[in-house]
Design brief:
single chain, alpha/beta, Quinone Oxidoreductase, Chain A, domain 1, Rossmann fold, 2 domains, six-stranded parallel β-sheet, 9 helices, 27% strand
Length: 325
């Protein structure tokens, strides 16, 4: 740990591969009005982090955040309130909290301390350790806000989750079941079948063996966490009037969607920091109705190794950085 005015963090000074992530001493942030200083115990690793590390080459130039090195990545944290930025934050020193910090802005969570807006945090469920809690915010809020804040989902016919074993996917599968989908169909590679059935999938499709549209027909909703150039191949799995919720950019071919009578909700929703939404998820986590899976846990100084693992793909759950003891 650094001195009273410094801390250890992982920072990048140029865009590039995992090797640009440097563990070093940096200034410790000071919380402003409406903020608290969180002593970070664990930080979640998200796809956004490795896209940002490379300078967002996967996004059209006009959509790229204007982030420039030096940067500390990371938006998901779990830890303990160490200092208050004012008397009206609603938190006390020593409170155990977790949150998606400042998203869609830059949060700087790969560090021993982060200054977080008080309203982006929720109380960490006692049933979860910090590593599990840090795996939750962005992925679970993405699934929750897509379904409940944007779609107003209240149950329905068969629902398909593509990329169901990943961070967003494994939460979406569980939240669809909790919200009353009559059947939840998980799509992933074959090695994830037992894991996904354990989370409540009614059916499993191994996309490496069977195209989704060959295995599924007349789905009501398709939650796509993969996107990409082949996204349009998923459309025939839906009924007329069925909806696609894309988490990432994909080629859904508007003319094909129109021909099939499928609604593709592209470019209309982005996850946002929300302590109140996270508190609702915390209640589900506290009593086991919602579970979090960890693919791997790495010490902060091995952030580069965590990114290498992430870029191999086929992740089961989330990758987390452990910060401090």
């Amino acid at each position: 740990m650094g001195t009273g005015t410094t801390m250890r963090a992982v920072r990048l000074h140029a865009f590039g591969g995992p090797e640009v992530l440097v563990h070093e001493e940096v200034p410790r942030p000071v919380p402003g009005p409406g903020e608290v200083l969180v002593r970070v115990r664990a930080a979640g690793v998200n796809p956004l982090d490795w896209y940002a590390r490379r300078g967002f080459p996967n996004l059209p130039r006009e959509l790229r955040p204007a982030w420039q090195p030096p940067l500390i990545l990371g938006s998901d944290v779990s830890g303990t309130v160490a200092e208050l930025g004012g008397p009206d934050t609603g938190w006390s020193v020593g409170d155990e909290v977790f949150g998606l910090v400042r998203f869609p802005g830059l949060a700087s969570g790969y560090a021993e301390y982060v200054a977080a807006p008080a309203d982006s945090l929720a109380r960490k469920p006692a049933a979860l350790g910090h590593t599990e809690a840090a795996a939750v915010p962005m992925a679970a809020l993405t699934a929750y806000q897509f379904l409940h804040r944007y779609l107003g989902y209240q149950g329905g016919g068969p629902a398909v989750v593509v990329g169901a074993a990943g961070g967003v996917g494994h939460f979406a599968l569980q939240l669809l079941r909790l919200a009353g989908a009559e059947e939840v169909i998980a799509v992933a590679s074959g090695r994830h079948e037992e894991f996904l059935r354990g989370l409540g999938a009614d059916r499993f499709v191994d996309y490496t063996r069977t195209p989704v549209a060959d295995a599924v027909r007349d789905a009501d909703l398709l939650f796509d966490t993969v996107g990409g150039p082949d996204a349009h191949l998923l459309l025939p799995a839906l009924r007329r009037g069925g909806r696609v919720l894309p988490v990432y950019l994909g080629d859904y071919r508007p003319e094909l969607a129109a021909e099939l009578g499928v609604v593709v909700n592209e470019g209309v929703w982005q996850v946002r920091s929300s302590g109140s939404d996270l508190a609702e998820l915390a209640a589900l986590l506290a009593d086991g109705r919602l579970r979090v899976a960890l693919d791997g846990v790495y010490p902060l100084h091995e952030a580069a190794a965590a990114h290498r693992r992430a870029e191999q793909g086929h992740i089961q759950g989330k990758i987390v950085l452990r910060v401090g003891d």
